[in-house]
Specification:
- The chain is α+β, with helices and mostly antiparallel strands.
- Among the domains are: 99 residues, Up-down Bundle (Taq DNA Polymerase, Chain T, domain 4); 138 residues, DNA polymerase, domain 1 (Orthogonal Bundle).
- It is built from 19 helices and ten strands.
- Strands 8-9-5-10 form a four-stranded antiparallel beta sheet. Strands 1-4 form a two-stranded antiparallel ribbon. A two-stranded antiparallel sheet has the order 2-3.
- A hairpin with a 3-residue loop joins strand 8 and strand 9.
- It binds a DNA duplex through helix 6, helix 8, strand 3, helix 14 and helix 15.
Length: 473
DNA sequence: TCTCTGCTCAC
DNA sequence: CAAGTGAGCAGAGAC
């Protein structure tokens, strides 16, 4: 950052109350506050230090918990502050052109929907949408309602009705277009800082219950990638000038690797050590066929089960997502646990631990307190149990990337690189890389990400470089 | 103007 | 009852 731009972001004067606040440090927009101020306040006032501890770890006594604050969260503050201040360059012209394109598509789509429905209505209103689909067109006599008495018209519901009427596909397409336009294509350019010319997000360090970061105003952790139309938005994330490119580094299957390591399941650890595609390896085991004999459908099902395991699975939930009978889903889950017995044991042990201690923890001792784990209400207890299973996995992944970020930042400073770390998206780090530093930074990032935490499974990191965020993948 | 709801985007 | 963690948008209704 040059001498003039050093001052471009206004420092907002903050009182101690404002700084810490009732909601904790999460409300702090770090790009507006010099780090020295935060440190000053914390050092001066033991009460503040205590509050900081309270924010990050509910109980101070335990050794491991304190280290999460001292060894991860506090060192991470200047790293995040730097990323927020740096911001990211957005191609405004590109988004304006794309907006006009989407606008045209939306208008055409709107007209088709009104014609197909035989009535004009507000497509963006779920209430009106439900009435048109289920009362006028009578697409589903057994249509489900929400707790407020409206018809459900979510994507999963509508997808199943697609064969019933041509209008469904068009509605989903319309929804996609308007989501892209309102949330990303039109919103991002308005958030460009007038002086820096870049978009500055805020990373919340103490919002997510698992230890993940969150990003707001704008949220740069949910930029579309899944669909072709959405993916276009990523082309607007560009380097500052022609001397730089975008470098993206992703952990591969980090949460599954972590559950393999935490559970000590030898079969799954072996799958990762052998370097096979994990979902194919799982399909091979669950459906009892050779790796070569795994077809697309088998892999798709295995992938769903692997995700389900991380989230705390039920036969009902899997059946619904795979659109298969519940019995078949139950059989797949049973086969899974037979093949990976220690995963099952790990899940039971984790829930048992939560019942005994009232919390679960990550590899670095980050805790999540599970209040409802002994509830007599089955639904409430079920949620608590899924939280208990998921938190150590998601949280350990958060520990790992946070530690990597601190190490990468330190190494980049030591080497006085021109390149900058600009975003974190849970299992991915994004950089603006100078042409002269491409190979150096690539090696550095892979090294620090792979070696952040030693586990019993190999950790893989994929790196790409390109002219924008999309091309960097 | 504020708050809640439903929906949809990401990992 | 029924898959974890977030954020933002438009509609709808309360104030």
């Amino acid at each position: 950052m040059d001498a003039m731009s050093e001052h471009y972001l206004q420092y907002k004067p903050v009182s101690i109350t404002e700084l810490i606040g009732k909601k904790g440090i999460a409300q702090l927009n770090m790009r507006d506050v010099p780090l020295e101020k935060i440190k000053e306040y914390a050092a001066e006032d033991s009460d503040i230090t205590l509050q900081l501890h309270d924010i990050f770890v509910p109980k101070l006594k335990e050794q491991e918990a304190v280290s999460v604050l001292e060894e991860i969260e506090m060192p991470l503050v200047p790293v995040l502050a730097g990323m927020e201040r740096e911001g990211v360059m957005i191609d405004k012209n590109f988004l304006h052109l794309y907006s006009a394109e989407l606008d045209l598509e939306a208008k055409k789509s709107e007209e088709r929907i009104h014609t197909l429905a035989g009535v004009k209505f507000n497509i963006a209103s779920p209430k009106q949408m439900g009435e048109v689909l289920f009362e006028k067109l009578k697409l589903d006599p057994k249509a489900k309602k929400t707790k407020t008495g409206q018809y459900q018209t979510g994507e999963d519901i509508l997808s199943k009705l697609a064969p019933e009427h041509e209008i469904i596909k068009e509605i989903l397409r319309y929804r996609q277009i308007s989501k892209l336009k309102s949330t990303y294509v039109d919103a991002l350019p308005t958030l460009i800082h007038p002086v820096s010319g870049r978009v500055h997000t805020s990373f919340n360090q103490a919002v997510a219950a698992t230890g993940r970061l969150s990003s707001q105003n704008p949220n740069l952790q949910n930029i579309p990638i899944r669909t072709e139309m959405g993916r276009e938005v990523r082309k607007a994330f560009i380097p500052r000038n022609s001397e730089f490119e975008i470098l993206a580094a992703d952990y591969s299957q980090i949460e599954l690797r972590i559950i393999a390591a935490l559970s000590g399941d030898e079969g799954m650890i072996r799958d990762f050590k052998d370097g096979h595609d994990i979902h194919t390896a799982t399909a091979s085991k669950v459906f009892n066929v050779s790796l070569d004999a795994v077809d697309k459908e088998m892999r798709r099902k295995a992938k769903m089960v692997n995700f389900g395991i991380i989230y705390g699975i039920s036969a009902f939930g899997l059946a619904q997502r795979l659109e298969i009978p519940r019995k078949e889903a139950a059989e797949i889950i049973e086969a899974y646990f037979t093949q990976y017995p220690n995963i099952k044991k790990y899940m039971n042990d984790t829930i048992e631990g939560a019942r005994t201690h009232g919390f679960v923890q990550t590899v670095k001792g980050r805790r999540r307190y599970i209040r409802d784990i002994n509830s007599r209400n089955q639904t409430v207890r079920g949620f608590a149990e899924r939280n208990a299973i998921n938190a150590p996995i998601q949280g350990s992944a958060a520990d790992m990337i946070k530690i990597a970020m601190i190490a990468v930042h330190e190494a980049m400073q030591k080497a006085s690189l021109k390149s900058k770390m600009i975003l974190q998206v849970h299992d991915e780090l994004l950089f603006e890389v100078h042409h002269s530093e491409k190979e150096l930074l690539k090696k550095l990032v892979i090294d620090k990400m792979k070696n952040a935490i030693q586990l019993a499974v190999p950790i893989e990191v994929e790196v790409g470089i390109g002219a924008n965020w999309l091309e960097a993948h």
